[in-house]
Amino acid sequence: MKKALLSVSDKTGIVEFAKELSALDYELYSTGGTKKTLEAHDVAVKSVSELTQFPEIMDGRVKTLHPHIHGGILADRDVPEHLEALNELGIELIDLVVVNLYPFEQTVARPDVTEEEAIENIDIGGPTMLRASAKNFKHVLTVVDPADYAAVIDKIKHDQADYQFRKSLMLKVFDHTNHYDAAIVNFFSNKVTTLRYGENPQQAARFVKTSAAPNTIAGARQLHGKALSYNNIKDADAALQLVKQFSVPAAVAVKHMNPCGVGTGETIAEAFQHAYEADDQSIFGGIVSLNKEVDKETAEQLKAIFLEVVIAPSYSSEALELLTQKKNIRLLEVQMHGDEETEEFVSVSGGYLVQDKDQKVLSPDEMTVVTKAQPTAEQWQAIELGWTVVKSVKSNAIVLANDKHTVGIGAGQMNRVGSAKIAIERAAAIDDHVIMASDGFFPMSDTVETAALAGITCIVQPGGSIKDQESIDMADKHGIAMVMTGMRHFKH
Ligand SMILES: NC(=O)c1ncn([C@@H]2O[C@H](COP(=O)(O)O)[C@@H](O)[C@H]2O)c1NC=O
C-alpha cells in the first residue's frame, strides 16, 4: 500500500483531499493537528509517531525530523542499495508528501508581532520534508499548494503523474521555500517593513530597504509618532532630498511629492518662518524638512500647525519636549551629510528604469545672461534659490522665488504656461525681488509674456528651444532680465 504523509498548517481542502487519497488506496500519516482535523471528519489516519517510534517533542519543534521519515522520502527507488538500507532498518517508503508551512509571513505582517512569535513560526520540519520529496521528485509527489489538490488527484486517478507533472510540483516547492526563507531574512534584517497600506487603503504595500545609512529615509531614526505611511515615506524623501541641497539654513514643506514652500534664513527658525510664509495654506498637513538642528523657537512654530512629519538632523531637548506633546506628529532624525546614492529606479510594466540622480548644482557663473537687462544682486540670490527648488518640482515646473523663499509654485501641468499661471496665482505679491525659474525651455514666448504681465522682471530657464530668440525678444520688450542655464531639470 502506498503511503502519504500529510502535515499542513493551512488545512484548507485537506479533508476532501485526504478522503480522495484514501479512496485511491493511500495509507495516510499525519502530524498532531492535521491528524486531529482528519479524524474529526472520519478520515482514517495514523500518527507519524507510528513511523518514527518517537513522540512529537518540544511543542512540535521536532515531529517529522527523523530518518524513518526522511529515509522513506529520499530513497532512490532505482538504486538497490537504497532499498536494501531501508529494508535492513525497517524504514518504509513514503510516496506522497503534502506539506504547507507555518504561516511565517502572515505572522510577521501583524504590526504587534514579537520576535519570539516570529521565531516560533519558522518552520523547520516542513521545509525539510518539502525539499527532500522535491529532490526525489521522480519517485515522490510533493504537494505544497492546496490549489493543486484536485489536479494531483486527477493525475493519480488517470495514471498521468508523469515526469513533467512531478517536475512542475518540484519547481513549485523550491520556489516556495526560496520565498519563505527570503521572508525570514527580510524580517530579521529589518530590510522589509510591511506598511499598513500603499498609496490608498486598497493597496497592500511594503518598504524594501536597500540602505541603513543615517542620511537616508530608510536609515532615519524615528523619535516620535505613529509608523510612517507609504505616502509619508515618499514625501519625506522628497523633502529630504531638496533640503539637503542647501548649505545655508533651509526649510522645505512638501505636499504630494511637490514642495509647496521653501525658505532660507540666517537661522533655522527664520528659514522655517520663510517657508511657512511662502504658502501658509498648502503647508497644512504637510511634511517639513529642516537642514539644521530644530531649536525651541523653531519647535514652537512647527507645533502651531498640523504637520504629518518633521525631518531634521537633530532636535534640542527643549524642541523635542515641545514637539512630542503632539501625538500625531512623526519626528525623524536624518543626517544631512554623507555619501549619496547616485542612481535612482522606477518600475514600468515588465521592468524598471535606472538613471543617475539629477544632482548637478549650477552656480551663477555657469549661467549666461541673454537679455539687455541684467539681474540685480538680489535677483541672482533668488535665481539660486529658485533654480535649486525647480529641480524638485514635477514637470512642467515653474517656481517664483525671491532671495528668501519661494513665492509661488506651479507643478505637473501638461503645458508650461499652465504651470506659470498657477505659480503666479499662488503668489501673494510679485515685485522686483521675484524671479521666475522654469525647469525646461520655453517652446514659445507665451510664458515670458505671461510673466511680464504679472510683473516679473527676471527669468531663469535652460534655453535650447529653436524659438529661444522669440522669448529673448519678448523679455527685452518688457525689460526682463533672462538667464539661461544650458541644463534642464525635468522631473516626471
Ligand atoms: N518540527 C517538525 O518536525 C515539523 N514537521 C512538520 N512541521 C510543520 O507542522 C505543521 C503541521 O502541524 P500540525 O499537523 O500539528 O498542525 C506543518 O506546517 C509542517 O510544516 C514541523 N514543524 C516545524 O518545524
TrEMBL record:
InterPro entries cross-referenced by the UniProt entry: AICAR_Tfase_dup_dom_sf, Cytidine_deaminase-like, MGS-like_dom, MGS-like_dom_sf, PurH-like
Keyword line: Hydrolase, Multifunctional enzyme, Purine biosynthesis, Transferase
Pfam family, one: MGS
Domain MGS-like: 1-144
Domain of life per record: Bacteria
Pathway, per record: Purine metabolism; IMP biosynthesis via de novo pathway; 5-formamido-1-(5-phospho-D-ribosyl)imidazole-4-carboxamide from 5-amino-1-(5-phospho-D-ribosyl)imidazole-4-carboxamide (10-formyl THF route): step 1/1; Purine metabolism; IMP biosynthesis via de novo pathway; IMP from 5-formamido-1-(5-phospho-D-ribosyl)imidazole-4-carboxamide: step 1/1
Entry EC no(s): 2.1.2.3, 3.5.4.10
GO biological process: 'de novo' IMP biosynthetic process
Entry-linked Gene3D superfamilies: 3.40.140.20, Methylglyoxal synthase-like domain
GO cellular component annotations of the record: cytosol
Keyword Transferase: yes
GO-annotated molecular function: IMP cyclohydrolase activity; phosphoribosylaminoimidazolecarboxamide formyltransferase activity
Reactions accelerated catalytically: IMP + H2O = 5-formamido-1-(5-phospho-D-ribosyl)imidazole-4-carboxamide; (6R)-10-formyltetrahydrofolate + 5-amino-1-(5-phospho-beta-D-ribosyl)imidazole-4-carboxamide = 5-formamido-1-(5-phospho-D-ribosyl)imidazole-4-carboxamide + (6S)-5,6,7,8-tetrahydrofolate
Similarity remark: Belongs to the PurH family.
UniProt xrefs under HAMAP family: PurH
Record text about domains: The IMP cyclohydrolase activity resides in the N-terminal region.
Matching NCBIfam families: PRK00881.1 (NF002049), purH (TIGR00355)
Entry protein name: Bifunctional purine biosynthesis protein PurH
